[in-house]
Design a protein that fits this description.
- The chain has one domain.
- The protein is about 20% helix and about 50% strand.
- It contains one helix and seven strands.
- The chain is α/β, with parallel strands linked by helices.
- Strands 1-2-5 form a three-stranded mixed beta sheet, with no helix packed on it. A two-stranded parallel sheet has the order 3-6. Strands 4-7 form a two-stranded parallel sheet.
């Protein structure tokens, strides 16, 4: 291979790398512009339709089994603390400016929690403070769920 061919191949590689860098830079620049939010609204031929939701879910499954030939003290306990707090807002506004079909909206804020606990203790002596299932759950929603349509 002569020097000219090697030089041309190096230039081609540099051109490809530069092209890829430009495409990546454009993608990084454009992605925040075209990013979609949680709100979804469409304009139909007859009015508007929108769907919005805020959902939170938690689950806990705990099992404990103790077998002891003597005293079982503070063993095989299941403790579960769950807390959900939503202080956000779920707001929706629609305007049927064509007055040709109205609006429809589906909005929801939902929270769910579940806990499944099982504890079994087999002991040859005392079972002081053992085999307890403790579950504390809290849900708080201080946000609002508002819809306005005209």
């Amino acid at each position: 291979m002569n020097k000219t061919n090697i030089h041309n191949k190096n230039q081609n590689k540099k051109l490809i790398v530069a092209s890829i860098a430009i495409v990546v830079a454009l993608a990084l620049f454009a992605s925040p512009i075209v990013a979609m939010d949680d709100a979804f609204a469409t304009k139909k031929k007859k009015g508007n339709h929108a769907e919005q939701s805020i959902s939170q879910s938690q689950a806990s499954v705990q099992n404990a089994l103790c077998a002891s030939g003597g005293t079982t003290f503070l063993s095989c306990n299941n403790v579960n603390f769950q807390n959900q707090k939503n202080s956000g807002n779920n707001a929706l506004a629609q305007d049927d400016d064509d007055d040709n079909g109205g609006n429809s909206a589906d909005q929801s804020i939902s929270q769910s929690q579940s806990s499944d606990q099982n504890s079994q203790v087999v002991s040859g002596g005392d079972t002081i403070g053992s085999g307890n299932n403790i579950n504390v759950q809290n849900q708080e929603n201080s946000g609002s769920n508002a819809a306005a349509q005209s």
